[in-house]
Amino acid sequence: MEIIMLRMFLFIGVGLFILALRRPPQKDWLLIFFVTAYFGSFIGALVVEKNLISYPVTFLKPPFQSSVLFEFLLLPVLSMYYYQTSYHSNVFGFIWQAASYSSVMTIIEFFLERYTDLIEYHQWKWYFTLITVFTFLICVRSLMWVINKKSGMLKDPKLQ
User: Fold this and answer.
1) In whole angstroms, what separates CA 46 from the centre of its chain?
2) How many domains would you assign to the chain?
3) Were 94 and a residue from 44, 86, 123, 133 both cysteine, which residue would form a disulfide, CB within 3.0 to 4.6 Å?
4) Segments forming the whole domain that contains residue 7
5) What confidence tens digit (pLDDT) does each residue in 6-16 have?
6) What residues form the membrane-spanning segments (predicted)?
């Protein structure tokens, strides 16, 4: 059952990735995707290495035991959609959206941990996921703001 769920998450992630790239500016969406995957892989590997979380069932066996599907596809896609929906938001708006996205991700992870073998908490709690995903989304969005500001791509006056 878990392998079927992983395949389902893979197809959903790839589908959402393709849909996200249909809107301009694709450069920003791809940059968000790759930045999130890059930093997410380090954080995920650290969390697994410290034995806070484990992933008993995976279909991709990397040299490290973190969730390749989550760190290299699902979290980056979530970050892309968060950035797309909060692109023109003010500070309150993008904080609210980060809280919403991280809450949904936390609820899904909570049920996956409780009812499947896809994830197992050792020294981890659901609210750690909520806090880390929320903080991660805010940090990546802030990094993109700095990149766009420095490159002169930021044109929305309420974001400057």
Assistant:
1) 16
2) 1
3) 86
4) 2-20+28-148
5) 999 999 999 99
6) 6-22, 29-48, 68-84, 91-112, 124-147
